[in-house]
Amino acid sequence: MSIDAEELTRFLNELLEAEPAGARVTLMWAAAEGQSQIGVLLRTIHRDESRWCAMLHRHIELLGGDPSRQAGAFYGKTMAIADTRERLAFLNRGQGWVVRKLRDILPRIDDLPSRTEIFEMFRAHESNINLAVEVLNRP
After folding, report:
1. What is the signed CA dihedral for 106, 18, 48, 66, rounded to 10 degrees?
2. What does the radius of gyration of the chain's CA atoms come to, in whole angstroms?
3. Is the pTM here over 0.85, yes or no?
4. Under a CB-based contact definition with an 8 Å cutoff, are residues 56 and 67 in contact?
5. CA 54, 56, 59, 61 torsion: positive or negative?
């Protein structure tokens, strides 16, 4: 069953409420990590998160919706974790949440431009999860 514009707008707004928190986490945390493996990874994720915020905003407007300005609690929850590896694992779970949401909705999106960009978002989140797992598996 295809998704209609109203439902797609609600879905994209749900993601838009989550992505800025991820962008903020990775920006603030990367600054503290410098050029370490984690710092490099966080800057990569930050670039993606920022890109997806802009893409989501644009698609919501194209659908005639109002982009949400609400922010999820992810930033505070993530930054409250003191241990670096535990924080990275938590960030990765957040990335996994986005992947699951996108995987569920992609088959229902008929609009090719939206589907293409949302698929790119899906693949980038999967890639970032794999990069984080590599970092977490290093001693």
Report:
1. 70
2. 15
3. yes
4. yes
5. negative
Tokens standing for residue 118 = 């949302």
Angle at alpha carbon of residue 125, lines to 7 and 65, rounded to 5°: 25
CA angle centred on 124, ends 91 and 57, rounded to 5°: 85
Residues in the chain: 139
Per-residue pLDDT of the chain (139 residues; tens, 9 = 90+): 799 999 999 999 999 999 999 999 999 999 999 999 999 999 999 999 999 999 999 999 999 999 999 877 888 999 999 999 999 999 999 999 999 999 999 999 998 888 999 999 999 999 999 999 999 998 8
Residue 122: CB atoms within 10 Å: 18
Helix, strand counts (H, E) of the chain? 5, 0
Domains of the chain in sequence order: 5-137 (1.20.1260.10)
